[in-house]
Amino acid sequence: MVWNKRNLLFVLSAAVGLILLVGGGCFFYSNWSANRNAVEEFKRAQSELKALQSKKPFPTKEAIQQAKEAQKEVLGILGQFKAAFESAQEAPSLDEKTFKSSVSRTLAQLQTSAVNSGVNLPQSDYAFSFSGLITKLNFPTNSIGSWVMQLHDVKSICSVVFNAKVNALESIRRAPVSTDEAAVGAGDFLPLNIVTSENIVRVPYEVVVRGYSREIADVMNGFLRSTDCFIIKNIDIGPASGAAGIAAAQTGGASVDANMPSRRRGGRSEGGASGANVGLNSQAPVTLVSEGMLRVVIWLEIVKINTWQ
After folding, report:
1. What's the Cα-to-Cα distance from 140 to each of 106, 150, 153, 187, rounded to whole Å?
2. Residue-wise pLDDT tens digits, 99-145
3. How far, in Å, CA of 206 to CA of 299, rounded?
4. For the chain, where are the alpha helices, taking DSSP H only?
5. CATH code (residue 101)
6. CB 203 within 8 A of CB 149
7. Which of 17, 72, 150, 272 is the most exposed place for a label (fewest CB within 10 A)?
8. How many domains does the chain have?
9. Cross-strand partners of 87
10. Are 203 and 299 in contact (CB under 8 A)?
11. Cα separation of 215 and 206, whole Å?
12. Where does residue 149 fall: left (phi above 0), alpha (psi -120 to 50 degrees), or beta otherwise?
């Protein structure tokens, strides 16, 4: 104890040194153990990599060729999909004079096509919902693209109607492009707007035609087969004005000839009179059923891919 008191500084230094030595040993052992674990993990990963490489995970020439062929097939499918949805592109830059000339030329072509197809129009100079553009002197440049798009749509609609050779195209209405346009020709417009979303543009139209059932069926078939994406929203079918239409309404869609003979049953007619002198073969052919003309209102949309983004 006396020696410890005399050499207190040495004893304290030795104790501190011993503590540091023990701590350093523990630190070394823990890091050495961690290093050994890291080396073992590295060797295990290296072994797995060699195993994967031995199985040839990288694309072969055959796999690359198959991927290219699959890509071509997918692009072909996308091309067919896009073909069903025409792109809603803005019109090329046109000055007012050029655009007005284009409108007049398009309307003249539609009027001529109607005459050649035997389709009656409300009037010889019918403007197909573009009467406001004919008298318009100034055209806002930001509206020209939408007007050109609608002109193309109306041409597509008329092409279907004229090819079906209906009796008459009564009217076409469309969505107004601007508020001032709607004020000029209210009868040309629907109370609807062009709907533009991130991916598609939906353009509404109303078409009113008059014709017989075969012609109406051809119109619907034409919309189905058109390269434009027509979506029929609603159809309203009724008798056209006139005697034939009234008769059709009264008989459920067909007019019946008053001279039609009664069907015979057991030698007597269903009406109670003798059928001996009323046989179908005892007189010249008669009209049994005469179809009445129909008036059909079609509400539709043309859907396009939005390329205005």
Report:
1. 19, 15, 20, 21
2. 888 889 999 999 999 999 999 999 999 999 988 888 777 777 778 88
3. 5
4. 2-6, 8-54, 61-84, 96-117, 131-135, 141-164, 179-184, 213-225, 243-250
5. 3.30.70.60
6. yes
7. 272
8. 1
9. 305
10. no
11. 18
12. alpha
Question: Could you tell me if residue 296 is inside a domain?
Answer: yes
The torsion defined by the Cα of 16, 19, 24 and 25, in degrees rounded to 10, comes to: 140
- Encoded tokens for 173: 């209405």
* 237 in Cβ contact with 294 (< 8 Å): yes
Question: Is residue 214 included in any domain, yes or no?
Answer: yes
Question: What is the spatial distance between Cα 53 and Cα 56, in angstroms, rounded to a whole number?
Answer: 5
Q: Determine, yes or no, domain membership for 280.
A: no
Which residue range forms the structural domain that includes residue 195? 83-245+292-306
Query: What's the start-to-end Cα distance of the chain, in Å?
Result: 94
Q: What is the predicted pLDDT for the residue at 309?
A: 43
| pTM passes above 0.70 | no
